[in-house]
Design a protein that fits this description.
Distance between the termini: 21 Å
Strand content: 35-45%
Number of helices: 1
Shape: globular
Order of helices and strands: EEEHE
Strand order of the largest sheet: 2-3-1-4
Number of strands: 4
Length: 74
């Protein structure tokens, strides 16, 4: 899939691991600054909007979004 991108979405607060079920195929990383990054490959814009919709549905505060071409990361 040439259009697949890796995304890192940062939300406010530390999310417990059980919330990963809302973000299929994504991984959490708790950061020292009190935020959580939700990271993973997203095949298309619709899937990215699904991640953002889950953030909204859970009442989380979005801090930032970063996109990286497949194979690259921060």
């Amino acid at each position: 899939m040439p259009n697949v991108h890796r995304f890192e979405v940062r939300v406010s607060g530390w999310l417990a691991d059980h919330w990963q079920g809302h973000f299929e195929g994504m991984h959490f990383q708790k950061m020292a600054d009190g935020h959580t990054t939700i990271q993973g490959e997203v095949p298309d814009e619709a899937a990215l909007f699904g991640v953002l919709r889950s953030i909204e549905d859970l009442g989380l505060s979005l801090v930032s979004i970063a996109a990286f071409p497949k194979g690259e990361s921060r």
